C-alpha cells in the first residue's frame, strides 16, 4: 500500500485527531498547533468554544468509524463525517511535490481540518476496505489506528503496545 500521497497521509491526521487526549481543556489548540503544517499559512488557529466543540465532534466521529464492526456501520458513520466536510479540491506544489488539497485554501481552521480528515479517512476506506481501521487490542490503550500491513493483520496502534502485550501474554503463560 502506498502512503506517500497527501490523500493517504491525511488519514494520519484523522488518526491523530481521534487519539488526541481530550481531557485537557486546551487540547484543541495544542492539537492544531502541533499539526499546523496541514493548514494554509495564516489560518487562524485560535478557535471559539463552539468551533472547538466542532473539532471534538469530528474527533468523535473518526473514532466511531474505527469502532464500527461491519461495512454498513462504517459507511453510515463515514457518511456522517463526510456530511460535515466541504470539499473543494485543488492541486498545489507548495512543498515541492504536486499533490491535492481537499479544502478551500481560505476556509477557516475547522473547515480545513474536518474536510481533510473526512476525505483522507474515506479514501483509505473505499480504496483499501472498511476493515483497515481498528482499535488497539493492548489493555488500557484504546487508540485507533489505520492498518497498512499487506494482509490487514494489525492489532495494535504502535510497536510499543504490540511488545507490551507480547510481554504480558508471556508472563501470563509463565504464571499459568
Ligand atoms: Zn500540502
Ligand atoms: Zn495501543
UniProtKB/TrEMBL annotation:
InterPro entries recorded: ABATE (IPR010852), ABATE_dom_sf (IPR023286), Znf_CGNR (IPR021005)
Residues covered by the Zinc finger CGNR domain: 132-174
Name of the protein described by the UniProt record: CGNR zinc finger domain-containing protein
Amino acid at each position: 500500500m502506498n502512503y506517500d500521497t497527501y490523500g493517504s497521509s491525511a488519514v494520519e491526521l484523522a488518526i491523530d485527531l481521534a487519539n488526541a487526549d481530550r481531557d485537557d481543556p486546551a487540547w484543541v489548540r495544542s492539537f492544531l498547533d502541533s499539526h499546523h503544517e496541514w493548514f494554509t499559512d495564516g489560518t487562524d488557529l485560535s478557535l471559539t468554544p463552539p468551533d472547538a466543540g466542532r473539532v471534538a465532534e469530528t474527533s468523535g466521529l473518526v473514532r466511531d468509524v474505527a469502532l464500527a464492526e461491519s461495512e454498513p456501520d462504517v459507511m453510515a458513520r463515514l457518511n456522517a463525517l463526510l456530511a460535515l466536510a466541504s470539499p473543494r479540491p485543488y492541486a498545489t506544489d507548495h512543498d515541492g511535490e504536486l499533490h491535492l488539497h481537499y479544502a478551500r485554501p481560505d476556509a477557516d481552521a475547522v473547515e480545513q481540518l474536518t474536510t481533510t480528515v473526512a476525505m483522507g479517512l474515506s479514501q483509505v476506506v473505499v480504496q483499501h476496505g472498511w476493515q483497515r481501521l481498528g482499535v488497539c487490542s493492548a489493555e488500557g490503550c484504546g487508540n485507533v489506528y489505520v492498518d497498512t500491513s499487506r494482509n490487514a493483520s494489525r492489532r495494535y496502534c504502535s510497536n510499543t503496545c504490540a511488545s507490551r502485550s507480547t510481554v504480558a501474554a508471556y508472563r501470563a503463560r509463565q504464571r499459568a
